[in-house]
Amino acid sequence: MSYASKIDKVVPMENITTMHINEILSELMFAKRIKMIELAHQTGVPQSTLSRILAGATTQPHRSSLEPLAAFFRVSVNQLVGKEPIPSLQRLSLSASQSLSVPLLTWAQVDSWITLGDTTEAYEMVQVDKALGEGSFAVTVEDAAMEPQFSRGAILIVDAKRTAKDRSFVIVKLGKSDKIVFRQLITDGINFYLRSLSPDFSQCGMTTMTDDDNILGVVLQVRKDYLE
């Protein structure tokens, strides 16, 4: 998909990293319990632009996008892009980094967990061996789309704050169907694709990502108990 956009005045990019922008915006949204579609409505920033920033695809956000976002969250542009700290997020990050367990979600629960931080349910917890980003979770593979590397019953440990890169394994919400799937991200210049690994899924082995598709997290570990 093409990410061409109108050229506008940009903030000097010295000391700015996409990862900082991506993580900070995601944490601000999580703390405020606001979905991307509502944030777009409240700020006037197109949902496609927000999606690219959150996915790490936009490396030089326009000031016309940064200023309304900063105003909405009551932070400065420098804070939004990571040049200056946001004390409230530092406290949240410290709390999250101290947790070495993540909730095991069903696929139906993933979207509400990511967008709302749903804590109303009692989840089974999965222990992890290193700190993950806030909002991280685990989910069980239920289909054969990623076999043979990822078989049914395997538990995926997903970092909700990690920036996806070429060939990352990702959890994605498809905009067209609202279905949440497990795929491999393939990048080719400005184009992004989702790939299934199983030869049985050859009919949908590689699909082009659209602006409405949203990466919810990056798979860092996989666990499988082979003993019944």
Spell out the key features of this protein.
9 strands; 22% strand; nine-stranded mixed β-sheet; disordered N terminus; alpha+beta; Umud Fragment, subunit A; 434 Repressor (Amino-terminal Domain)
Give the SSE string. HHHHHHEHEEEEEEEE
Radius of gyration: 18 Å
Q: How large is the count of helical segments?
A: 7
What is the level-2 CATH architecture name of the largest domain?
Ribbon
CATH superfamily heading of the largest domain: Umud Fragment, subunit A
Query: What is the class of the largest domain in the CATH system?
Result: Mainly Beta
First CA to last CA: what distance? 44 Å
Q: Quickly count the domains.
A: 2
Strand content: 15-25%
Helical content (DSSP H or I, runs of 4+): 25-40%
Main sheet: strands, sense, barrel: 9 strands, mixed
Content-based structural category: alpha+beta
Strand order of the largest sheet: 2-1-3-4-9-5-6-7-8
Number of strands: 9
List the helices and strands and how they pair.
Layout: H1 18-32, H2 36-43, H3 47-55, H4 63-73, H5 77-80, H6 87-97, E1 101-105, H7 107-116, E2 124-127, E3 137-140, E4 155-159, E5 169-173, E6 180-188, E7 191-195, E8 206-208, E9 214-223
Parallel strand pairs: 1-3
Antiparallel strand pairs: 1-2, 3-4, 4-9, 5-6, 5-9, 6-7, 7-8
